[in-house]
Write a structure and sequence with these properties.
The complex is a heterodimer.
Chain A: H1 2-27, E1 30-36, H2 44-63, E2 71-77, H3 83-96, E3 101-104, H4 108-121, E4 125-127, E5 140-142, H5 151-161, E6 166-172, H6 175-190, E7 198-203, H7 211-220, E8 227-232, H8 238-247, E9 257-259, H9 264-267, E10 279-282, H10 291-304, H11 313-332, H12 337-344, E11 348-350, E12 356-358, E13 366-367, E14 370-374, E15 380-385, E16 390-391, E17 405-408, E18 415-419, E19 424-425
Parallel strand pairs in A: 1-2, 1-3, 3-4, 4-5, 6-7, 6-8, 8-9, 9-10
Antiparallel strand pairs in A: 10-14, 11-12, 13-16, 14-15, 17-18, 18-19
Helix pairs in contact in A: 2-11, 3-4, 11-12
Chain B: H1 2-38, H2 44-53, H3 59-68, E1 71-74, E2 80-86, E3 89-93, E4 100-105, E5 109-111, H4 116-130, H5 136-148, H6 155-164, H7 168-184, H8 189-201, H9 205-216, H10 220-269, H11 277-298, H12 306-328, H13 337-359, E6 375-378, E7 381-384, H14 385-407, H15 409-419, H16 421-426, H17 431-453, H18 465-478, H19 483-523, H20 534-537
Antiparallel strand pairs in B: 1-2, 1-5, 2-3, 3-4, 6-7
Classes of the chains: A alpha/beta, B alpha+beta.
């Protein structure tokens, strides 16, 4: 009885103190920032980290005095890896919580689900993950890589440095791998690769039995030409895939695998000893040796109170996006959506790999492309990088549907899909 | 007298000259090694081959370290050392003398960059250097690398090695390597023809690759031979591929069996629609993770035993959780399948989120003990050790469970209670006690399955979700209430899946399997092995 009473008492006290805390915050005038990342369900594995990264960035900014003289306040919601719930939660953030900008989404389908909400309620979304392109929306800023900032340079690297002539395009069966592979296939054929030297393979989400596919890859690789695997396999399915590769003795020296969805976070669940030399293409690696990155990693480890936590590419995208938003708000002097949308274009902030990233008129940013090899300690070592920054190309030049489209959100044009052939705004995928 | 003086003089000269040459060689070697530190990745190939050309045995550890990424350059003077990690510092080893050269903090050293091209160069250089080593396993490794990265320049070395080789295994690999290398060289057609005949007998992928590329620039006479050889290898490979497919099917079947066998008790025998079954598997996998974590931190020597230690622990942990679920929730819901379904589904969500909150949402690393890593060749089959052990383990668990249910008094009571609760109760069996134990047993076995599945899958909070549908499918397909049905169901689904996959692809294959099961259940609603008798009606 006494125990129950004291527990109830403690609970009440806790509830009271949180309300008091919130009340104190609400009384003070704050700028609210929405965080829309799944904290439960399948995608929690990747998205929880991004929520923590955003909380850390907001915390750091508040220590520096906030924004426009006000404190920033994070509003965290959990869309639970449920795509329609993303739209509902986005609506809640914008209409009920009145946030000034939202940082969130991971999968393309979740982004597509929230697009109409952001358009209707006229708010701003920062999307931090590499994606398939073929989209440019007025209310969305894409801080992750477009295909030409990740997939195409990776293929170029393999062609030039490993003289690969035969290609396996392996992916999980959903929109990002399918579109990326379509672009890559068109690109490879334009480079003179014969169609019979390209093998495309799709697997379901969470596929765990890779025996047949790995042995198919080995067989495909024994045709006397150097073979490589380009993997758009998503999240969870990667661990059993790499375990099977290691066990069947597929060495990186013979058949290298270059992955677009495998970062430091995914490797943390793996013994990377047998995987040394397999590749990944990103715009950032934790191992990048610059003072800003060292500082970022130190803050991150201190914030999570875990010395083993790793950083990854989408975290850097949020870092860039958040800093761009801060700068744009300062420039506009207000958090009003239209003013910030105008101010964002041309904003340039330091990225973590030692350069500056700029927001382009197509709402994509400039980034360096790095190719890294997996090391025994679960980190990547950069073996190649683009000489300069690459501008994100939203409408791929290699697909017949989109090669005539461009996007420019500056004043006279203000169009996300301007067709240069017909001279009209509004092509495919308006 | 004069003669003696002459001999002395010559000897002295020789001594001096060898000494001078020796120290110059050491200097050269040191300089060559240091050059690795300043070379660009594209120049590394050249540097490695000039190192290999010295033929000095000291080069071997240097190249090995380079391949392993254990070669570092000191930032202050550009000297290159072999290193060993010692806590936060690096222990330096001089590449020329092989002596320890003190310690340095990591910040003062820079790793010599390597990429796949460098690793390939190192592999083939090492192959050439260790071809005449005294150690048989080193020679075998060298021969294999010669086979995998054929290089026409190495032909003479391989032939010299064949002449002195005594070990039959190494000899066989060397012969194959010679044939592969010969095809790339400028030797006579007659010799090439012999090499083609030799390669045609094997079923090696390397042989096939070399033949295919040789086909492109062979003259007409050789072309026919090569084509015949390729056809022959492909024929043998088609045979072995069928065998390989059977193996994959067995392996998938054993994974399905493991995942489903706990459910065969809780759902099959007891009739509880247990949606939390997958989470029991997950808890078993996390127990393995915890055991490995303790072993890594405190008793690294025991790592190979980690699974043996984790098995009983996982059984206890998940058994206890199962017991708690049965006593706390399920016993109030017997005879109300819909409520049981909802309740166990709720429990599964609670367990998932609990694990996510405690261990975090990301994957946890569970390593393979050395006896479960890698693969071996059996004829033309590649058999991975972890899959082999999982098949053995699944069958053992199945046999033990069958024994427990059919041959022990406890098993008799379990069957009695599930078949006719009231009759069993009036015969003096404590039915609630038996219920609780049966559910705990089913959960415990699911936990043990988790230990095995942690070896091939992610250890993440979602682990169980991936198996729950498959498990129900196996149990329903095999026939509810029949252990043999679960065994046959698991293996037939495995075989069906793996034989559809090469033709239909993984995505369509899975859909086809589901469609076939739906059709099958329409025809035989009670599954493959239906229980007969009055118990069914109850």
């Amino acid at each position: 009885m006494t125990i129950r009473a004291s527990v109830t008492g403690a609970f009440l006290a806790a509830v009271l103190s949180t309300t008091a805390f919130n009340g104190a915050f609400a009384a003070d005038d704050t700028i609210k920032v929405g965080i829309l990342h799944s904290l439960s369900g399948t995608m929690a594995i990747s998205e929880t980290t991004l929520k923590d990264a955003m909380l850390m960035l907001i915390d750091e900014q508040n220590k520096k005095g906030g924004l426009l003289g006000k404190k920033l306040e994070a509003v965290v919601v959990d869309p639970a890896s449920d795509w329609p719930l993303f739209a509902e939660k986005a609506r809640e953030l914008i209409s009920v919580d009145k946030v000034s900008a939202v940082f969130g989404c991971w999968t393309s389908v979740s982004r597509k689900s929230v697009l109409p909400v952001f358009e209707e309620l006229n708010s701003i979304l920062f999307y931090p993950v590499q994606y398939e392109g073929e989209e440019s929306q007025r209310n969305v800023f894409y801080t992750g890589a477009a295909p030409n900032q990740q997939a195409i340079p990776a293929v170029d690297y393999l062609m030039e440095n490993e003289s690969v002539e035969r290609w396996v395009l392996a992916g999980t069966d959903y929109v990002y791998p399918r579109t990326t592979n379509k672009i890559l296939e068109a690109y490879l054929i334009s480079k003179g690769v014969k169609p019979e030297d390209i093998m495309i393979n799709y697997t379901p989400f969470g596929h765990s039995d890779w025996q047949t596919i790995v042995s198919d890859i080995k067989k495909f690789g024994s045709a006397g030409k150097k073979t490589a695997v380009v993997s758009t396999i998503n999240g969870d399915a990667n661990v059993p895939f790499y375990k099977e590769l290691a066990n069947q003795g597929v060495k990186a020296e013979d058949i290298p695998v270059v992955a677009f969805s495998v970062g430091e976070e995914e490797l943390a669940g793996l013994d990377t000893g047998p995987l040394v030399g397999h590749l990944a293409a990103w715009n950032y690696f934790q191992s990048v040796d610059t003072p800003t990155n060292a500082e970022f990693i130190k803050t991150w480890k201190a914030y999570t109170k875990n010395d083993k936590r790793v950083t990854n590419d989408p975290m850097e995208a949020h870092y860039i996006g958040f800093n761009m938003w801060l700068k744009a708000v300062e420039k506009a002097g207000t958090t009003d959506t239209d003013a910030v949308l105008d101010a964002m274009i041309g904003i340039s902030v330091p990225n973590l790999s030692g350069g500056y990233s700029t927001m382009m008129p197509n709402h994509h940013i400039t980034k360096p492309v790095l190719i890294g090899e997996i090391q025994g300690d679960g980190q990547f070592e950069t073996v190649w990088e683009t000489p300069g920054l690459v501008v994100g190309d939203e409408w791929s030049d290699y697909l017949p549907d989109s090669k005539d489209l461009i996007s420019d959100w500056r004043a006279p044009m203000s169009c996300g899909n301007f067709n240069v052939a017909t001279g009209k705004c509004g092509g495919k995928g308006s | 007298m004069y003669r003696i003086l002459q001999i002395l003089f010559v000897a002295l000269c020789l001594l001096i000259s060898t000494h001078v040459v020796g120290s110059r060689a050491a200097d050269d070697l040191g300089a060559l090694v240091d050059q690795l530190g300043v070379a660009k990745l594209s120049d590394m190939d050249e540097r490695i081959s000039s190192l290999a050309k010295t033929g000095d045995a000291k080069v071997i550890p240097v190249l090995e370290a380079l391949g392993e990424g254990e070669l570092y350059q000191r930032k202050s003077d550009g000297k290159v050392f072999l290193v060993k990690v010692q806590g936060a510092d690096l222990l330096l080893i001089d590449p020329v003398t092989g002596m320890e050269a003190g310690q340095a903090p990591k910040a003062a050293m820079q790793k010599v960059k390597v990429n796949n091209a460098v690793r390939r160069a190192v592999r083939s250089a090492l192959g050439g250097l260790t071809l005449f080593s005294d150690d048989t396993s080193a020679r075998l490794k060298a021969a294999q690398s010669m086979l995998q990265t054929p290089n026409a320049d190495a032909l003479d070395a391989i032939e010299a090695a064949i002449a002195t080789e005594k070990d039959a295994t190494v000899r066989k690999v060397l012969d194959e390597a010679r044939a592969v290398t010969l095809l790339l060289s400028e030797r006579s057609d007659e010799e090439k023809r012999q090499a083609i005949t030799l390669l045609a007998k094997g079923n090696g992928r390397t042989g096939l690759a070399v033949l295919t590329s040789a086909l492109a620039n062979a003259d007409a006479a050789l072309k026919l031979d090569i084509e015949a050889a390729i056809a022959r290898i492909e024929q043998t490979q088609a045979f072995w591929n069928a065998g390989q497919n059977v193996w994959y099917a067995l392996s998938l079947g054993s994974v399905l069996l493991l995942a489903a066998i706990g459910l065969a008790i809780t759902f099959g025998v007891m009739g509880i629609i247990n949606m939390a079954h997958g989470e029991m598997v997950m808890l078993g996998a996390y127990t393995t993770f915890l055991v490995q974590e303790v072993i890594r931190n405190s008793y690294p020597g025991l790592f190979d035993w980690s699974l043996a230690i984790a098995l009983p622990l996982a059984f206890l942990v998940t058994g206890t959780v199962g017991l708690a679920i049965e006593r706390g929730v399920i016993r109030f819901l017997y005879g109300r399948p819909l409520e049981t379904l909802l309740a166990t589904w709720g429990i599964s969500l609670i367990l998932q989120q609990a694990v996510r909150s405690i261990f975090g949402p990301t994957n946890r690393e569970v390593g393979n003990p050395s006896w479960m890593a890698g693969a071996f060749d059996l004829g033309g089959l590649t058999i991975t050790w972890n899959r082999l052990w999982i098949i053995v383990f699944a069958l053992t668990v199945f046999a033990a469970l069958l024994f427990l249910l059919k041959k022990t008094p406890m098993g008799l009571r379990m069957r009695a209670v599930t078949q006719n609760r009231r009759m069993a109760s009036s015969m003096g069996i404590r039915t609630p006690f038996v219920d609780a134990l049966t559910f705990a047993l089913g959960s415990g076995i699911a936990g043990m399955a988790g230990v095995a599945l942690s070896q091939i899958d992610n250890v993440s909070p979602n682990l169980g979700q991936g198996y729950i549908i498959d498990s129900f499918m196996v149990v329903v397909f095999g026939g509810v209430g029949n252990l043999w049905g679960t065994l046959v169901g698991a293996f037939s689904l495995g075989i069906l899946n793996k034989f559809l996959e090469p033709y239909a692809g993984a995505v369509l294959g899975k859909i086809l399997v589901l469609v076939l099961i739906i059709l099958f259940i329409q025809k035989k609603p009670r599954g493959l092995f239906a229980l007969k008798g009055r118990a069914v009606e109850a």
